[in-house]
Design brief:
158 residues; mainly alpha; 4 helices; 67% helix; 0% strand
């Protein structure tokens, strides 16, 4: 399928419809960005070394460093933004999966709430507990003086 044949073609539509596909796609993008980040770190380091070694006649020892600082800061901001971008990609993949789980849970929660509303509207009358038969058998009343563990039950029944 391509955009020439299908007027409804959208290149990432199938990826957007599946949380697994979205996670795979974002992981691929993140992997590429991390590779670019490694190259940018190397570039920043090499640029720093070169700029700080560039001295002009009449410079004091700190002049080259002062001239290099804006360039270093700009590259540092690029690296910081790149790291924020990769973290955002990872976070968005988790949020995408959480969205699908929330959609599934919402339908179930609505059904449970509706059942609860029905129970409140039509409460079932409580039934009294049946009385135990009194046919000559002594009923054991386990109140506060009854057995306190399952081992005590064996002595009572024996």
């Amino acid at each position: 399928m391509n955009s020439n044949n299908d007027p409804n073609y959208a290149p990432l539509r199938d990826v957007a419809q599946s949380p697994e596909a979205t996670a795979r796609y974002l992981a691929d993008v993140q992997r590429v960005l991390l590779d670019i980040g490694k190259n940018l770190e190397t570039l920043a380091h090499e640029t720093r070394v070169h700029l700080r070694d560039t001295h002009v006649e009449g410079d004091r020892w700190y002049h080259a460093r002062l001239r290099a600082m804006p360039v270093e800061k700009a590259l540092g901001n690029v690296l910081k933004n790149l790291n924020n971008l990769t973290e955002g990609l990872e976070k968005s993949a988790y949020k995408r999966r959480a969205h699908d789980e929330a959609v599934v849970n919402t339908a179930r929660d609505r059904k449970e709430k509706e059942l609860e509303r029905q129970r409140k509207k039509n409460p079932q009358p409580l039934q009294a507990a049946p009385n135990p038969p009194q046919q000559g058998v002594q009923s054991q009343n386990y109140g506060y003086g009854g057995p306190t563990s399952i081992y005590d039950l064996g002595r009572e029944s024996a």
